[in-house]
From TrEMBL:
Coiled-coil features, chain-numbered ranges: none
Swiss-Prot/TrEMBL cofactor(s): pyridoxal 5'-phosphate
Catalytic activity: L-aspartate + 2-oxoglutarate = oxaloacetate + L-glutamate
Natural source organism: Salipiger mucosus DSM 16094
InterPro entries the UniProt entry points to: Aminotransferase_I/II_large (IPR004839), AspAT/PAT-like (IPR050596), NHTrfase_class1_PyrdxlP-BS (IPR004838), PyrdxlP-dep_Trfase (IPR015424), PyrdxlP-dep_Trfase_major (IPR015421)
UniProt xrefs under PROSITE patterns: AA_TRANSFER_CLASS_1
Keyword list, A-Z: Aminotransferase, Pyridoxal phosphate, Transferase
Name under which the protein is recorded: Aminotransferase
Listed GO MF terms: L-aspartate:2-oxoglutarate aminotransferase activity; pyridoxal phosphate binding
Family: Belongs to the class-I pyridoxal-phosphate-dependent aminotransferase family.
Length: 396
């Protein structure tokens, strides 16, 4: 048969796309093995019944046909209002493109920001889909900018400036709160990054899907900094804030001229999203911050529980987790790689965690733990993980 394009065959250049342990754990669970999945960011509460009722009512009311490609005006208006309230930056529906989840928003933003041949920077450790999102464009390979555990994985402006200069990058992708590390970028870090972006004329693509899950510090969007609104594309999503992962409702917030062009892209890809799903999102956003706080409460509670458990031992280190639904654990004392640790933990105890190597070379020797099972089960799994690490530390 004809050959596939290099664009599609090089999306996963490394062979393992980072999800190997997750797929294996799912297969074990489907075969009947007891598995505690602490891999992906999937809420254990599910989508709130009131949101599902709003979707159902909209579908029964006939909202099952083609939707406006940029998104329904009513949903774009409430997204814009929420962004204005949360960031202080005036935002209207003209700044909003509704996308098929945050992932489609990331793809659209990079297609808008980068010409064929342009390189794109992103901070490492990174969410596992970032390299493929970059590689899907007709461009050179993506350029990660490593960070260091001793700096709590916060990006260094000098490193980014050198990477931008050396690569001739057109864009910089940042993610705060960060997945996988939980780092919440402080104002001074974001101000330094904004200076790099302006000095090197970079678009900044800011992945802010965890902005409602802040446990320490405060969320600051780069778009709110001086001179940044006109060069920042913000990715948002209903997935984490409203436990609507499967509904695939996200957005890009960008200058009006950028949104107009991204609508052209959406017309040739998704051609809009189901109206009844958009109505569920509009209803969910209309419930306000108290609703979002209720969705995030289990992760705040489990984070405190994890700090108590990890504080009682000295073999597993914890990177300070300022936000998000994950813990990033340092298991280098075991002498195992993150991949070896995760594989052995799954095989011996039926506990699935993500290897740090799934998120880039900077994360080698770490594992990411999702706080996505009920409290008692989560605590038991975390204690077992620590005991497992202690056994291997003694052997090492």
């Amino acid at each position: 048969m004809p050959q596939l394009s290099t664009r599609i065959t090089t999306l996963n250049a490394g062979g393992d796309d980072g999800w190997g342990v997750f797929y294996r754990a799912r297969a074990m669970a489907e075969a009947g093995a007891p598995v505690t999945e602490l891999t992906i960011g999937e809420h254990d509460t599910g989508t709130d019944p009131a949101i599902l009722d709003a979707m159902h009512a909209a579908a029964r009311d006939g909202q099952t046909g083609y939707a406006m490609v940029p998104g329904n005006d009513s949903l774009r208006d409430v997204i814009a209002s929420r962004i204005t309230d949360r960031t202080g930056v005036g935002t209207t529906r003209d700044n909003i493109l509704v996308t098929a989840g945050g992932q489609a928003g990331l793809f659209a933003a990079h297609m808008a920001a980068c010409n064929p041949g342009d390189t794109a920077l992103f901070v490492e450790p990174f969410y596992a889909t970032y390299p493929g999102t970059h590689s899907a464009r007709p461009a050179p390979g993506p350029v990660p900018s490593p960070t260091r555990a001793e700096d709590d994985f916060l990006p260094d402006a000098g490193d980014l400036a050198r990477a931008a200069q050396d690569s001739g990058a057109a864009s910089l992708l940042v993610n705060s709160p960060n997945n996988p590390t939980g780092a919440v970028y402080p104002r001074e870090t974001l101000e330094a990054l904004s200076k790099v972006a302006q000095a090197h004329d970079l678009w900044v693509i800011s992945d802010e899907v965890y902005d409602t899950q802040i446990w320490q510090g405060a969320h600051l969007s780069p778009r709110a900094l001086p001179g940044m609104a006109e060069r920042t594309l913000v990715i948002g999503s209903m997935s984490k804030s409203h436990a609507m992962t499967g509904s695939r409702i996200g957005w890009v917030c960008a200058p009006h001229e950028v949104v107009e062009r991204m609508v052209d892209l959406a017309t040739t890809t998704t051609y809009g999203l189901p109206m009844y799903l958009q109505e569920g999102a509009r209803f969910g956003l209309s419930q306000g911050p108290a609703f979002e706080a209720r969705i995030s409460a289990p992760f705040r509670r489990r984070r405190a529980l994890a700090h108590e458990i990890l504080g009682a031992q000295d073999r597993v280190g914890l990177i300070p987790s300022g936000g998000g639904m994950f813990l990033f654990l340092d298991i280098r004392a075991t002498g195992l790689s993150g991949e070896a640790f995760a594989d052995a933990l799954l095989d011996t105890h039926g506990i699935a965690v993500m290897p740090g190597e799934s998120f880039g070379a900077s994360a080698a020797g770490f594992v990411r733990v999702a706080m996505t099972v009920p409290d008692a089960r989560f605590a038991e799994a975390l204690r077992t993980l620590c005991a497992f690490a202690a056994e291997h530390s003694a052997a090492a």
